[in-house]
Amino acid sequence: METGIERFNRWTDAFKAVAEILAQFREPEELIAVTLDEIAKISGVNCCWLQQVDEKNNNRLILQGQRGFTPEMIKQIKSLKLTQGVIGKVVLSRKPTYIADIAAVPDFSLSSFVNAGLHSLIAYPVVSEQTVVALLGMCSRHRGEEVRENGERFPASVPLALMKDKKGKAYDFIEIGEDITEHKRAEEVLKREKERAEEYLNIAGVMLATINADENITLINKKGCEILGYEEGELIGRNWFDTLIPQRMRNEIRGVFAKLMAGDVEPVEYYENPLLTKGGEERIIAFHNTVTRDSDGQIIGVLFSGEDITERKRVEELLRREAEEKARLMNIVVHELGVPLTPTLSSAQMLADELERRGTETDKRLAKNVLDGAVVLRDRLNDFVDLTKGEMSLLKVFRQPTDIAELVDNIALQCLAMFGNRKQRFHLEIKPQLPQVLVDKTRTGQILFNLLSNASKFSPEGTAIVLRAKKRGDKVIIQVWDSGPGIDLERRRKLFNLHSYSDDNGNGFAGLGLFICKSLVELQGGKIWVRSRPGEGSAFSFSLPLASKN
Fold first, then answer.
1. Is 81 strand, coil or helix?
2. By C-alpha distance, which of 35, 11, 14 is closest to 23?
3. What is the 3-state secondary structure (H, E, C) of 97-119?
4. What is the C-alpha to C-alpha distance for residues 175 and 178, in angstroms, rounded to an integer?
5. CA 162, CA 274: separation in Å to the nearest integer?
6. What's the rounded Cα separation, in Å, for the pair 550 and 279?
7. What are 170's strand-pairing partners?
8. Do residues 116 and 181 touch, judged by C-beta distance below 8 A?
9. Own/partner long-range contacts of 206-211 (Cβ < 8 Å, ≥24 apart)
């Protein structure tokens, strides 16, 4: 098997042969073509190339010609900067370099060469007046190997500080080759781990991608390609914004990305925006992202996952429109029922007041029944509005810091006449200096009034009703205790559902109001519950969050 020294001498002969024919040509394109053809012919390498050093453009290396390159190799070597890796060092040091196996060299940045199955490489600087003007390179699929004393061959990395004879022929290296067997083993382990990581990425049910600081896509998994309609690997190296962001929002999002890379803004953990597919369709993606950093802690890119929520958004929009239409019809129904109810309620109240002064007991009882029926109908109509809004997710609360002691006291005052009519004793127990809560005043008053009305309805005449308010942790707890018949376990489990009756005979209908109470409490960040035993009354409690916590 050919050693690194033998291969170096053979390749050097190729360079000398090329030099002898360079003077025969004057046209640069023809000269380069013949040069590369001659190198490939004499050396027997799998690929070779010529790069020119462009002094006017920050000493960038410009690919002038190649033989045997894959499209990926052409793309990668065109973007190579002078300061990068092994190739750049050859130009800067003006010394040739020979590598026995490029896959074992950590700073060899041309991964496409490794992917093409290439191993040994020589990079030769073309020097004119002490200045490197170009670089000639050759690669082979054969590994450079050295031999141990026991005859075993091993992969080696060989420096090109050469010992030459009088004819300029290299016959030995100043340093012995470095045994990179362990490097190769580590490389194989890393390769397997990389393949396993790629498998994990490709079985993920969401898009996974990374963008570097230059806005280019450095990774995107199989799911991401499927969502966007691209083949695997087709997006790698492309500009994220120019390729995938719709024109109307491209500049704005690009500006935010620039600030993110500069560390001027914090990353937003979740956001939604559209991406363009290969076919030009917009898909709405829900993103979760984080920045990536190098070993020095500097931001170098963004890693994110993305879920295609386009269909979900379409369904949500259809449901929203449907809810708006239902709300419109509901308002019409409520209006048509409310218009005749208002004068009915007013007339019933006037009749009850008049008969209270000069009517018979029968007249008073009948007038009271009419008034109570009109009030119940009004309350049920209001409950129906809230129930319908809740089912369509249109029930809203507008929270603000509120003095809960004052609110509880005001609602209690409104209920005193109701308790007096049934000769019920009412006790108000408010702990002093209660903190403010973050609630909707109107909706919280509605909850309290409903619970107190139920307590009065189900408590016999002459019994007690208690309203308590106290602080517990980061909540204020409000409790309404009644002297009613109590509620067994089976009915307690269904109490806050729709249409839960107070007893088996249907005496009293509380389920609709309690269901709405539960909805309103939860909308304000609280909870509602009941403790009760048959024959011992019931205690309805609900919690409200402190304003200071929020």
1. coil
2. 35
3. EEECCHHHCCCCCCHHHHHCCCC
4. 9
5. 59
6. 46
7. 164
8. no
9. 206/305, 206/306, 206/307, 207/285, 207/305, 207/306, 207/307, 207/308, 208/303, 208/304, 208/305, 208/306, 209/303, 209/304, 209/306, 210/292, 210/301, 210/302, 210/303, 210/304, 211/240, 211/257, 211/301, 211/302
Copy the structure tokens of residue 169.
Answer: 């022929």
Mean pLDDT by 10 residues, the chain (550 residues): 58 56 52 76 81 75 88 84 73 82 78 87 81 85 61 48 50 44 59 58 73 89 89 86 93 91 84 91 90 86 89 86 77 74 83 84 83 74 67 72 93 87 92 92 89 92 94 94 91 76 44 79 93 92 86
Q: Burial, 509: exposed, middle or buried (Cβ in 10 Å; 0-12, 13-18, 19+)? A: middle
Phi, psi of 385 (to 5 degrees): -60, -50
The residue with tokens 């799998």 is 46
Q: Which two tokens stand for residue 517?
A: 């109470």
Mapping DSSP to helix (H, G, I), strand (E, B) and coil, where does residue 48 land? strand
What residue type is assigned to position 66 of the chain?
Q
Residues constituting the chain: 550
